[in-house]
Specification:
It comes from Clonostachys solani. It holds the Pfam family Beta-lactamase. GO terms for molecular function: hydrolase activity. The chain is α+β, with helices and mostly antiparallel strands and about 375 residues long. The chain has a domain of about 230 residues: Beta-lactamase, CATH 3.40.710.10. It contains 12 helices and 14 strands. β1 and β2 form a beta hairpin. α1 packs antiparallel against α12 and α2 packs across α7.
Length: about 375
Amino acid sequence: MEAYESIVSKAVEDGVIPGAIFLASDIDGSKLRYSKAISGLDSTYTDETVLEVASLTKLVTTIAALQLVERGLIRLEDDVSQLIPEFSKRGVLEGDVNGDGSYASHPRRNAITLHRLLTHSAGGAYTFTDDRIAKFVAVSPGYVSDGTIDANFDFPLSYEPGEGWRYSNSLDRVGQIIEKLTKTTLEYYFKQYIFQPLGISSASFWGGKRPPMAMREHGNARAVPDPGAPSFTTGLKECFGGQGLFINLPDYMKILRSLLLDDQVLLKRETTALMFKPSLSPTSKAALSQELESATWTVGDLPKTKEYDWGLGGLLIDGDSHPYRRRNTLLWSGAPSVFWFIDRNAGVCGVFGTQVLPPSDPVVLPVIKAFEEAVYIEKDLL
């Protein structure tokens, strides 16, 4: 990994990133058990540095939901409408949103299931994945964001559940379901049933000392740390299961390795196996493929192989055309340039993190791609 360390050091020196932490491992750690932090002069990145990991939270929320399935508290195909009434009461958009925030819609026909929520096929969308939702937020006089899940994501549905795909806030809704079924907070549940069993001590929804977000202005090569910059947890008053977690990456790596090892600390083997299987209906898979053809918000290397599905927890490689990832590799990312992958067929996993905005910063993407490639080269898989 020495060659890759030189790439990161040069990126830090050039101001592309303020610093980075990256870890990788094979199954038994005999050939690959790697951890490195590289920091710039005006930042501090160490193994103990807590990062705001944004959508890396989604994997942890998925694991928690699957634990409840194992305990018999809920089934994947259960209609969960009554557990998330503020989401399920919304109609489905027909056409565009008007300039006064009004819109045409029809009552939802299909069920909102846990499975559809976990796979972003339940009808929801973010403002950056559906322009109509962005317009609704911008012009609707009734939309008020107050730091709660119900208020922040008080949107109409983008499509009929099960008949489309949009990357969305559905994992925040799954977090609400977990809290209602367990009668506790997501913070408490994660600590009791995910973090403590793995010896994770750094993770929380309520922050901690972390490097400031570095902001890259358009056309500027340098990402400048801005301690006052708002981020994905600014103003949040609840545990957002889709974006709210703070954690250091060695601790996050413990989650990835547990799934890679299939050690049954978090989930039974048959449940973990479900995470690494294609989960979308043909219609939703086609919508995902279309979305990835033009998406500008993704983080990581997503060549246009059209061999993608969604597993339970992340994007799934659904074919053999990728230059290094094996079929059924599970991966995902977070907007401030954080990224993870688990390739059980190759027997490797890894996580990369820095704190750079705007989301999906294209200057950082080559650094993340080079990290993945370096892991496969180190393991003699390329």
